[in-house]
Write a structure and sequence with these properties.
- The chain has 180 residues and is mainly α.
- It has a domain of 120 residues.
- It is built from 5 helices and no strands.
- The two termini are 68 Å apart.
Length: 180
């Protein structure tokens, strides 16, 4: 059996994909674990509960260091709660990169999803084109087929012709033949 040349258009099969599928390497387990951790932190920091907890923490810090026993205070109201400022700055300095890492991971997932969607739509387009060609081929094949009305008309005309032939022939097989 001869094979069709590669550049020949085949109408009896869907078109192939126009691009190759790239394999995606999995990240090592430690990077993936750290990435999941950064996403968890970023997700947690974006909740109302985190903001409520941080607000309560700051209120308690300020209240303790303002109204608590003087010997147990660890941050002075006189110098503007420097330790609280440092703690919040430290939290913000870690939060920003962790949120960016989580966003980068989401961007990578979105990129992979977009590529898969593009490939899926490319396959759907190829399948749709194939089905359209098949429908056209079926319509052309049905166009050449005899319809029910055509066959009935032909059968009627043949019956009429047979009736005419029978009435036109003299009856040679009449009673004389039966006697003999």
């Amino acid at each position: 059996m001869a094979r069709a040349p590669r550049n020949e258009v085949r109408l009896d099969a869907p078109k192939g994909l126009r691009s190759s599928v790239r394999s995606i390497r999995r990240a090592p387990a430690s990077r993936d674990r750290f990435g999941r951790f950064t996403e968890w932190i970023a997700r947690a920091m974006g909740t109302p509960w985190f903001l409520l907890g941080l607000t309560l923490f700051v209120i308690l810090w300020i209240a303790w260091n303002t109204y608590g026993p003087l010997a147990l205070r660890f941050d002075s109201v006189d110098i503007g709660f420097v330790a609280l400022t440092l703690v919040l700055s430290l939290q913000a300095s870690y939060a920003a990169p962790l949120i960016l890492l989580a966003q980068n991971r989401q961007d990578d997932r979105d990129r992979v999803q977009i590529e898969q969607d593009r490939q899926r739509s490319e396959r759907n387009l190829a399948d749709t084109e194939y089905l359209a060609r098949e429908v056209v081929a079926l319509r052309l094949a049905l166009k050449d087929m005899a319809s029910k009305d055509f066959i009935r008309a032909e059968l009627r005309s043949l019956l009429e012709e047979l009736d005419r032939d029978r009435t036109d022939q003299p009856e040679h097989d009449g009673p004389e033949r039966r006697r003999g």
